[in-house]
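Objective 1b: paired records.
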Amino acid sequence: MEFREYEEMLWNLMSAENTVRNHAEMMFESMKADSDRTLLYLLQVIRSTLSDDVRGLAAVLLRRVLIRDEVSLWTNAAASTQHSVKTDLLHVLTYETNRSIRRKLCDTVGELASSILEEGEWEELLPCMFQWITSTNVAHRESALRVFEMISLYMATCMTAYFDTTIQQLFQTSLRDGEGHVALHALRALGMLLLSLDELDERDRFQPLLPAILHALHTMHVDGNEEDLVEAMEVLIELLEPHASFFKPMLKELVPLMVVLVSTGASDGSFGRRQLAMEVLVSIAENAASACRRFPQNGFVEQVFPLTFHLMLDVNEDTTGDEVDDAEDDISNVDVGAEALQRMAQAIGFKKALPVSFGLVSQYAGTSTN
């Protein structure tokens, strides 16, 4: 098959006509019998100046045949082809400007690296990533961190000697990086590394990064970077259940920030952000209850519990009946507030929770009768 025919097959794989698409799928499956040609053709498409749609599909297919298929083409490929795959992936990533394709290629690099790094089969990868992390090109820094996220298990098992030096400095710098989405990618990579560590002593070696994490969250909020902020809070929620104690040194700074995120933005469509910030607070209460009870002057309950009442009373009077019907499957702020109050009261204990809760009930009951 000539390259032009291969390109046509890729276009047909995206066809809306079932007959055309099914025929192209059969052609691609039969071609996979030749591992070397399939891998090299896909790389040629990715390197080419063809449409981003075709190049993006080629990137997806390359990841699938290398990693995801039951029989990986990687193991059947010649050593020269394997070398071309590794070299070309890094070369394309160096110059790729399409963010979607770059993300797909990073995932391919990361998954392939996860399966071969420990055997010493990709010696060029880590030096390249550490070079990119200091690059002036923000795309390089983001790509390196995405790859680090994908190889977190390798880092957790084979790079512990560098935790206090190279790795920690990498995250210190990246979490404070205000360009692009670098800080978010750094938080994601750090989160995956923490989840990959088995020993608490190893995990706590990264506690010096807590101020940088707080800085990243605060900067996302101040800059109005809602999408990154929402994703960052999702990372925190995932980490808090198994690793709440890791965050204890910064709870007195993290809690007020989450309080601000729940309290503000009611009229700008940021309901998802407010709900996630409340979930972070609930996760803190459920997984670090003793630390919450030790806040001076019952400070955690005094700061957080009023927010649950605000959410429960947050009814948009401008919402029409049709809009209510359309949104009936959504989780409302009323639901979030009620559930959060119940979960936090149970976690922290009624001795701390009830006096504040009764005071809030009396306050709002008095307001409604005036």
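Objective 1b, second protein:
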Amino acid sequence: MPTGKNPFDLSGKNIWVFGGAGYLGRAVVRLLAEMKARVLCVDMEQRAQQFVTEENLSSVVLTASLDVGDVTATLKFVAEHVATYGVPDGLAVLTYASTAKRMEDLGIEDFDRVNHGNLTATFALCRAVGEHMVNHAGGSMVLFSSMYGSVSTDPRIYETPMNPNPIEYGVGKAGIQQMARYLAVHWGRQAVRCNSISPGPFPNPLIQQGQPEFVERLAAKVPLGRVGQADEIAGSVAFLLSDASSYITGQNLAVDGGWTSW
């Protein structure tokens, strides 16, 4: 029976966005704020505060600084912010790590460090938040993977002197998809949903302006014939955080213009 409630409504929802001051994170934070969610934007150093100030969002978006790679600091952060702001209804994790090195130049310590940032840090954050959600009223998590968590890099796109998208990044992003599936099953009966999103080519403005030929090569690989713009991914995050996706969990949503379709 229809309830009359808008399933996409996020007004008043407590949502934490980690990596919220990055290129894609900014679009997510903007949309969630427009939808009247109570947003906590978290990023390294003072990036979140700088972004929110520049966008005149200070009245509707809270900010915090955290390096999620510091697991001890992350656990303390979650405990303190739950005590102050309550258990989040939604969690979006857009953080990542990478070396930008060729595989031949990648040290074992580099590989370990990056996967600590991409996997261990994400796991620690999600487990800490999820345990609070389980004891609250459930919630929804959205973890950011990548097209390179599903398919390999096409080295023809990355012409010399560019390095192909690095192996440790793709390995970590593939792990994010599996982490989302595992958490979805583990917490499903406690009403905690977890999904991942795999963005396709979303080069930031600096790359779009400074490397137009590279952007053209990316676009040529996309069935839609163009690269993505940041605003085009924000709606997917809002959907997965909302009740409109209440029967969706453990899935990976490719927002890639069809990149992984061939």
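The two ends are 40 Å apart (CA to CA). Residues 108-134 form the longest helix (27 residues).
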